[in-house]
């Protein structure tokens, strides 16, 4: 078949796909006919009833419907349906109510927002109010947060403060990733796909019994896309936008008895490709649309662009069982290095001449070619937990937590017009040590009334230093900051059972984010330190399942007050990034999740949210754009924009998601199917100030899969499409010297094959 773009496939990719295809064929041959029937890759079950979803949101295994927290579970089947086109962790944006994500770094450094709360800071030590936890290990540095999604059991999205069990830096919520664990049963799968723009994925896993006490599992992922963006300035075709992203995970589980088990996990990721491709003067003056003649497939840039990333880590889970007591030890080590170089202004200097005349004016007032490097990132975590048997009327757990992070950051700038000579060099270092003690209890007063309560004492200390060795105004520093903070956080929840399959709950929770430091001093002579932010959230929720298990519906309403919210004033006319605190931020909204079998062959899910955010600080002002834009906010005497009353950046008011699957049985074990998913988010503002230009229009994106599975779902072939309407939307901007934009990926159409043991 033909695809949307006749891009050539590199020979090494053809070889890789051939190997992966052979692995898939081998998987098919190795099928054990005695194993249980498995399901199609994007169907939750072959039956017409919903299955129980078990979660570990409160560090115990519980039924989703019994956990009194606003949360959404994204199953492995959904992740696979979304991910054929090379999507990374950013694919979770708008896949759950109140969840949004964006980046200015390409395939690394995702920035997540829950209920409007997030952080747009792009420095490599930026803290985030959304905590990402991978196999019970917090991924603190933003570079670690982009680990690809493959061979996962599910993703749990916990909305609202999680200050008791997850502690520091989780005032907005937590996103938990659970990988598939080894078992004594031989199992595995292989999955390959190829689509337009040379987009290729190869993914496989195999696991099973190693001995009577040991089992193992190995899984791997390779993702590739050809360069597809022409650089008219250099005359190079298909110069930018490509990548090679690879990841591997190895696990070994020891379990000789029911009294003790040990799980070791080793994982790594290698990424090479383009950094974010910026588009100079792409936004119309006075509006939030593309300039006439804008072409997503071409740029005119005189700066360089490349990106390299390597991360690896290991964790050890030890569990002891003593009668009705359980003791767990979780030890984690994560390391990362990266170098990301880009043409920040997104165009070319007036003295240059592109090899091909540009369709739009891509000349910028001055050039900006910068790179961020992370030569060292070492994170060590240790958690101990003691809990009782979950079958007791009183369930409790206590624990301790330790966190130690040591990172080094280097910021470079280059003289584009002088053969890209180095003209700026800043070093940053940060050592963070934190510890906490926590406890929670859950008591069933009656069969219909339950109370949960928890508290955590946290202590956090940072030791930060920044020094500029080379720059526009000469050396600066070393500049230092040593913020320290210690405080309580906790929650209180009451749950009332209305019937066998429905309950309501009310929850009060608070949380905090530790003090942050911003030392990006390429163009500044001082660093900035933000005070800790605190939040108190109020939530009422309803959870229900129909008596016939064909409908699941959960909903909640919430309100929060945040004090001293940490915000990042990015760029603007001063071209300086700094941290600030807002006196108060208010938010409120509503969320729902729905899952249903409308007929035995027609399954659908839906979710949606309304999120209102508002800054409350009459004197808070930030520098507006420096590249020419229409500022809506009033200006103070210094010419800065007063942002009191503004919504938070990257906080869409409305989010909606919908999936549907219809199957037509064929023969004894086969099925034709159609699967589609659609995700909507309303308008978002990119910066703290409001302008007509730096915001994104409402965006609806859809995907589709049409295919056939057989052998009870163990084999599947499908055609897929992502962004099937080929919608073109501005997803971010840079405002310091022109109206620079980021844009979404084009439509990808491809074919996929999957086989399971």
TrEMBL record:
Membrane topology: Multi-pass membrane protein
Classification via InterPro entries: Beta-barrel_TonB (IPR000531), Beta-barrel_TonB_sf (IPR036942), Plug_dom (IPR012910), TonB-dep_rcpt-like (IPR039426)
A Pfam family reported for this protein in Swiss-Prot or TrEMBL: Plug
Record's subcellular location: Cell outer membrane
Signal peptide span: 1-30
Transmembrane segments: none
SUPFAM superfamilies assigned: Porins
Every TonB-dependent receptor plug domain range: 64-174
Domain TonB-dependent receptor-like beta-barrel: 264-724
Record key words, sorted: Cell outer membrane, Ion transport, Iron, Iron transport, Membrane, Receptor, Signal, TonB box, Transmembrane, Transmembrane beta strand, Transport
Family as reported in the entry's similarity comment: Belongs to the TonB-dependent receptor family.
Descriptive protein name: TonB-dependent receptor
UniProt organism field: Luteibacter jiangsuensis
């Amino acid at each position: 078949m033909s695809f949307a773009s006749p891009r050539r496939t590199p020979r090494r990719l053809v070889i890789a796909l051939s190997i992966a295809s052979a692995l898939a064929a081998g998987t098919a041959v190795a099928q054990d006919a005695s194993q249980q029937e498995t399901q199609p890759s994007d169907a939750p079950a072959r039956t017409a009833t919903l299955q129980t979803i078990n979660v570990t949101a409160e560090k115990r295994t519980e039924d989703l419907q019994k956990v009194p927290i606003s949360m959404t579970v994204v199953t492995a089947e959904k992740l696979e349906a979304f991910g054929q086109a090379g999507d990374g962790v950013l694919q979770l944006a708008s896949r759950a109510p109140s969840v949004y994500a964006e980046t200015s770094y390409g395939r690394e450094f995702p920035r997540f927002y829950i209920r409007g709360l997030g952080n747009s800071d792009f420095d490599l030590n930026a803290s985030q109010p959304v905590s990402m936890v991978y196999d019970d290990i917090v991924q603190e540095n933003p570079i670690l947060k982009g680990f690809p999604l493959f061979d996962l059991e599910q993703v749990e999205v916990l909305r609202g403060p999680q200050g008791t069990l997850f502690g520091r830096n989780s005032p907005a919520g937590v996103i938990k990733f659970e990988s598939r664990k080894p078992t004594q049963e031989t199992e595995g799968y292989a999955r390959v796909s190829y689509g337009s723009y040379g987009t290729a994925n190869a993914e496989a896993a195999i696991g099973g019994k190693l001995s009577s006490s040991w089992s193992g599992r190995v899984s791997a992922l390779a993702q590739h896309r050809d360069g597809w963006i022409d650089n008219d300035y250099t005359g190079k075709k298909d110069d930018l936008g490509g990548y090679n992203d690879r990841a591997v995970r190895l696990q070994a589980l020891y379990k000789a008895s029911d009294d003790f088990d040990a799980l070791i996990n080793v994982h790594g990721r290698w990424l090479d490709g383009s950094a974010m491709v910026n588009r100079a003067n792409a936004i119309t003056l006075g509006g939030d649309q593309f300039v006439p003649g804008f072409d997503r497939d071409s740029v005119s840039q005189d700066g360089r662009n490349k990106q390299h990333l390597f991360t690896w880590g290991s964790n050890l889970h030890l569990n002891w069982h003593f009668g009705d007591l359980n003791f767990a030890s979780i030890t984690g080590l994560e390391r990362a290095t990266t170098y990301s170089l880009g043409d920040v202004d997104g165009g070319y200097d007036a003295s240059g001449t592109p090899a091909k005349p540009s369709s739009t004016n891509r000349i910028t007032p001055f050039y900006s070619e910068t790179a961020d490097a992370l030569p060292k990132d070492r994170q060590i975590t240790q958690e101990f937990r003691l809990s009782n048997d979950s079958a007791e009327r009183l369930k409790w757990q206590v624990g301790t937590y330790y966190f130690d992070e040591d990172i080094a950051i280097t910021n470079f700038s280059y003289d584009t017009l002088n053969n890209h000579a180095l003209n700026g060099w800043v070093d940053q270092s940060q050592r963070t040590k934190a510890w906490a003690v926590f406890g929670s209890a859950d008591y069933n007063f009656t069969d219909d009334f339950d109370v949960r309560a928890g508290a955590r004492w946290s202590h956090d200390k940072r030791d930060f230093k920044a020094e500029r060795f080379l720059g526009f105004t000469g050396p600066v520093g070393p500049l230092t900051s040593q913020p320290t903070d210690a405080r309580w956080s906790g929650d209180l929840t009451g749950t009332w059972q209305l019937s066998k399959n429905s309950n309501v709950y009310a929850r009060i929770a608070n949380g905090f984010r530790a003090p942050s430091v911003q030392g990006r001093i390429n163009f500044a002579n001082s660093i900035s330190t933000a005070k800790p932010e605190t939040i108190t959230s109020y939530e009422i929720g309803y959870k229900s399942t129909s008596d016939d298990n064909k409908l699941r519906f959960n909903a909640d309403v919430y309100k929060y007050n945040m004090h001293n919210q940490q915000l990042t004033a990015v760029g603007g006319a001063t071209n300086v990034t700094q941290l600030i605190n807002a006196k108060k931020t208010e938010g409120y909204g509503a969320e729902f999740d729905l899952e249903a079998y409308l007929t035995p062959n027609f399954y659908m899910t839906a979710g949606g949210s309304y999120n209102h955010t508002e800054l409350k600080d009459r004197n808070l002002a930030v520098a507006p754009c420096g590249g020419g834009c229409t500022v809506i906010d009033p200006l103070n005497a210094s010419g800065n924009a007063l942002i009191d009353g503004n919504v938070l950046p990257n906080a869409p008011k409305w989010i909606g998601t919908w999936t549907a699957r219809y199957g037509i049985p064929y023969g004894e074990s086969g099925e034709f199917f159609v699967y589609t998913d659609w995700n909507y988010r309303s308008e978002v503002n990119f910066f703290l100030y409001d302008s007509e230009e730096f915001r994104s229009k409402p965006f609806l994106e859809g995907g589709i899969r049409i295919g056939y599975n057989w052998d009870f779902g163990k084999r599947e072939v499908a055609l897929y499409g992502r962004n099937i309407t080929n919608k073109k939307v501005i997803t971010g901007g840079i405002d310091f010297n022109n109206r620079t934009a980021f844009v979404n990926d084009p439509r990808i159409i491809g074919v996929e094959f999957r086989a399971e043991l």
